[in-house]
Specification:
mainly alpha, globular, 352 residues
Length: 352
């Protein structure tokens, strides 16, 4: 509801006090994905950076890192990594190397590397962040972020059991300290990992549905439209394995429509399910039936899209069971205070 005032304030400062505009757009780094206005957010940050060439290097770094986070949510991981590297070079020129922004830059770099599906870059960056977070005795949510990237790197490296165990631990630790983005993302990654099995049995698909329902609840609690679309996209590809192929095609079409409108990247972790995974949904229906389902899906509103997944998932997998780490599901837990979405978000009331 405050977006018109925010836009007016930034426009005013771009003309008169561009450094203030830069600080505002950087501080609102999480807003652009939550509100589903990634393209606008990217443009505003870029405008502020261009207009603030004489800003303090730390203000420039904050702007670059906000831009890196927007790129992450918009599905441009190469840009995320490039911007974090540029940020660290700027910090080299103005600090002794220990500035807190440096750890944030490394954290964003790890997230970009995971989305880029670069196993070596993700592993090396995540391991550095883990070690540095421990050395600096960083808050728990930052450590969760580092472990999240490392768990994803393990999955991409083929060490699935190790990666699953790490993500399960991250899920519980994130819930415990109030870092809900970490909790929901761990569940989303675990669901994609379950879908890596080419001949997916219905019980495993049911576990993936359970994980996605929990992740969806977290991201809806945050009003996080970007990651909601990521969960629903994974859900669309899971539904055929619980005998709901037509609903899966409808849901995918709806997600694609809303992702194009918001600029959000819905495929951020699809590579965890293996190469060629998305084509399986196309083969689940005849061409005529698929075309009809896609037309229906494209017409769905945001609320109707959510209802489609919720109702279909509940009908297909009504019972949420307790599963062990080897099954890729989580025990009881959750709750915690709402965190800002994104790999650099600080929980509002996290326990350090």
């Amino acid at each position: 509801g405050e977006l018109p005032n925010i836009r007016a304030g930034i426009a005013h400062d771009l003309e008169r006090r561009p450094v203030d505009a830069l600080r505002t757009t950087a501080m609102l780094e999480w807003l652009w994905s939550v509100a589903g206005i990634l393209t606008e957010g990217r443009q505003l940050i870029q405008d502020a950076l261009r207009a603030s060439g004489d800003a303090d290097p730390k203000d420039q770094v904050r702007g670059l890192l906000a831009l890196a986070l927007v790129a992450f949510h918009a599905g441009d991981p190469e840009e995320t990594v490039r911007l974090t590297d540029t940020s660290m070079k700027l910090l080299d020129e103005c600090t002794d190397g220990g500035h807190p922004l440096r750890l944030k830059a490394w954290m964003f770099r790890a997230a970009g590397a995971v989305q880029l599906a670069d196993v070596e870059l993700a592993r090396a960056t995540a391991e550095y962040v883990v070690a540095e977070a421990e050395r600096q005795r960083a808050p728990r949510w930052i450590r969760c972020n580092a472990q999240l990237a490392l768990g994803a790197a393990r999955l991409m490296d083929g060490r699935r059991a190790e990666g699953e165990a790490m993500l399960l631990a991250v899920r519980e630790q994130s819930a415990d300290c109030g870092y809900l983005w970490g909790q929901g993302t761990a569940e989303l990654m675990l669901a994609w990992n379950l879908l890596n099995d080419r001949e997916l049995a219905e019980p495993a698909a049911g576990r993936a549905v359970q994980l996605l329902r929990r992740a969806l609840a977290v991201f809806l609690d945050q009003s996080n439209s970007s990651d909601v679309l990521g969960v629903l996209y994974a859900g669309a590809h899971t539904l055929p394995y619980v005998a709901r192929a037509a609903d899966g095609v409808r849901l995918r079409a709806a997600v694609l429509e809303h992702a194009e409108r918001t600029g959000a990247e819905h495929r951020r972790y699809v590579h965890l399910a293996g190469a060629g995974f998305e084509q399986r949904l196309d083969r689940a229906l005849t061409p005529v039936a698929r075309a009809a389902a896609e037309r229906e899906g494209r017409a769905l509103s945001w609320a109707e899209m959510l209802r489609l997944f919720r109702d279909t998932a509940e009908a297909a997998v009504p019972a949420v069971g307790e599963l062990g780490p080897g099954d890729g599901e989580l025990g009881p837990g959750g709750g915690g205070s709402v965190s800002r979405p994104g790999p650099g978000a600080t929980p509002r009331a996290a326990r350090a």
